[in-house]
Amino acid sequence: MALNIADLFEHAVDVVPDRGIIQVADRIVSYADLEADANRLAHFLQSRGVAPGDHVGIYAKNSVEHVVALLAIFKIRAVVINVNYRYVEGELDYIFDNSDLVALLHERPYAPLVASTAPKHAGLQTVVAIPDPTEPASTADISAYGGIEWDDALAGQSAERDFGPRSEDDLYIVYTGGTTGFPKGVMWRQADFWRVLGGGIDFMSGNRLEEHDQSKSAASSEPMVTFPLSPLMHGGAQAAMLMHLFAGHRTILAPKFDAAEVWRTIEDNGVQLIFMTGDAMARPLIEEYERGDYKADTLIAVASSAAIFSRPVKERWMKAFPNTFFTDSVGSSETGFQGTGLQDSENIKGEGPQIALGLESVILDEDNRVLDPETSVGQIGRLARTGSVPIGYYKDEAKSAKTFITVDGVRYSVPGDFARIEEGNKVTLLGRGSNCINTGGEKVYPEEVEMALKGHPDVYDVLVVGVADESYGQSVSAVVQAREGTQPTLEGLREFLRGQLSGYKLPRSVSFVDEIPRSATGKANYPRAKELALAALEARV
Questions:
Q1: For the CA atoms of the chain, what is the radius of gyration?
Q2: What are phi and psi of 283, to 5 degrees?
Q3: CA dist., res. 450 & res. 8, Å (int)
Q4: Interacting residues of 89 by C-beta distance below 8 A, sequence separation 6+
Q5: Residue 509 covered by a domain
Q6: From CA 489, how far away is CA 157, in angstroms rounded?
Q7: Among 2, 224, 280, 525, which is disulfide-ready with 440 (CB 3.0 to 4.6 Å)?
């Protein structure tokens, strides 16, 4: 046995096989049924030549089948590649190529995009169409690329668990938008992933768990009803779901976010914990709660991660749920969990979320020296983690060398988040020290949008920045220098970009200027561009 995702899941199956563990709408699936279908799919993939270490993509929204696919891939020691279902053709081409996919499991309605991309990648030999819970009647054509129906893939396959031993060194990869302009695959040993994201270290106490501790808890404790609202295509939601699988807690999944449906689900199922992505979800949820008539007295805890959960929105939540615990959790695909903070009316008044540093998390100064939290109160540095950290980025040694550094023989993951040290081993988060825009939990790299906008015939030069947004934490704003004699519009620019970029990357505002702020050498002046964007927005109010 090893600290391996498939093993940890199977431990829970063995102690509570009949427990309903995954729920989508009114469908509740037990551990035993989840295990049986995962085994069938695993055997199918093996029959198609998928071997340990091979990369298999999942291109789907939240569903029971998505969970089955994840588990099946882990069971045969292959590597899951998360594919953002918002990607357009060019982005899919990139991820299929960069990740070296040999197989893909995609929801049926995405067949037209798969048909235009999959045949370009010779290594991608097996494609399975997953039923879409939001479009169950879809008959999109999958024949152009030899697609296989989900039911046909499972039919006749063994439901037995007859796989060989696994290793804690088996890879877990999560693709993140990061700050490089293109998605990067962060490579983890599964043992390290479990430690920092799968519950292998108790998030509140910092205690290290043993291999069977979570399954023992599943057998001896009353399960919680949990509801991670984010898509499983993101590492945070995937980690939350897996952690709950290991520990026997029922996880409810929603294929799409709908505020009213969320509250009905909480009320109908006695949900105790929700996990959400900052204001992008928190604001529409609390607005719906305030105008509706919902009973949510079972809600014990509200956890937010991966995006800004702003003070005004928190205050509305705390007023509506005075007896509920609110936490801001901090981490990234490159570090895993780094700390959490219980939020109350006092500690939400600062510049940013205040958290207690987690085990193995440190603050580095500009010379990469570890700051002592007791003697360095008030100092600002970069949030870093040692111990259980990723191996690096897949096929990107240069980027790996910048993010994963070794100082005095100790290896650190330093993705670039800045924080100020506070009293009591706490820090206040000040934000990413780059130009990356976080809009509703999705990361947008400005240069990618700029390059696309420069293809518009009326755009002479452009810079893209993030500005504060009540709904999404940040939104994408373009500062544009138009070509002489032209008058481009925001809607015209957005329409031009629609076939090139995902919707969340499109500018929500535009400011037209006589000249883009750049240095004499042509280097972009992003701070000045942001000032121009904000001034234009204020002038419209």
A1: 23
A2: -70, -55
A3: 44
A4: 113, 116, 117, 499
A5: yes
A6: 56
A7: 280
85 domain-assigned: no
Encoding tokens for residue 212?
Answer: 């069977």
For 211, half-sphere exposure in the C-beta direction (CA atoms, 13 angstrom radius) is: 14
Domain of 452: which CATH number?
A: 3.30.300.30
Strand partners for 381? 419
For 162-177, give one letter per residue: b (16+ CB within 10 A) or e.
Answer: eeeebebebbbbbbbb
The pLDDT profile of the chain, 541 residues, written as one tens digit per residue, is 579 999 999 999 999 999 999 999 999 999 999 999 999 999 999 999 999 999 999 999 999 999 999 999 999 999 999 999 989 899 899 999 999 999 999 999 999 999 999 999 999 999 999 999 999 999 999 999 999 999 999 999 999 999 999 999 999 999 986 434 578 999 999 999 999 999 998 877 778 999 999 999 999 999 999 999 999 998 888 999 999 999 999 999 999 999 999 999 999 999 999 999 877 788 889 999 999 999 999 999 999 887 667 677 888 999 999 999 998 887 788 988 887 777 666 655 554 567 888 888 999 998 999 999 999 999 988 999 999 999 999 999 999 999 999 999 999 999 888 788 999 888 887 665 567 788 998 878 787 788 789 889 999 889 999 999 988 899 999 999 998 999 999 999 999 999 889 999 999 999 999 999 875 445 678 889 999 999 988 887 6
Question: In the beta sheet, which residues pair with residue 432?
Answer: 417
Indicate whether 476 belongs to any domain. Answer: yes
Q: What tokens does 372 get?
A: 């002592």
**What stretches of 298-379 adopt beta strand conformation (E)?**
301-305, 325-332, 336-342, 354-357, 361-364
Place of tokens 């994840």: 70
Give dist(CA 309, CA 352) in Å, integer. Answer: 9
CB 219 within 8 A of CB 248: yes
Euclidean distance between CA atoms 284 and 104, whole angstroms: 34
Structure tokens at 22: 């995954």
Instruction: Decide the pairing of beta strands 273-276 and 301-305.
Output: parallel
Tokens for 156, please give them: 């006749």
Which domain does 479 fall in, by range?
437-540
Pairwise CA distance, residues 316 & 288, whole Å:
12
- Asked whether residue 467 is assigned to any structural domain, the reply reads yes
Helix (H, G, I), strand (E, B), or coil: what is residue 304?
strand
C-alpha angle 504/508/523, rounded to 5°?
Answer: 90
Quick check: helix, strand or coil at residue 30? strand
The full length of the chain comes to 541
* Reported pTM: 0.84
Q: What values do phi and psi take at 479, rounded to 5?
A: -110, 115
Residue 487: how many other CB atoms lie within 10 Å? 9
β-pair partners for 475: 467
Phi-psi region at 525: left, alpha or beta (left = phi > 0; alpha = psi -120 to 50): beta
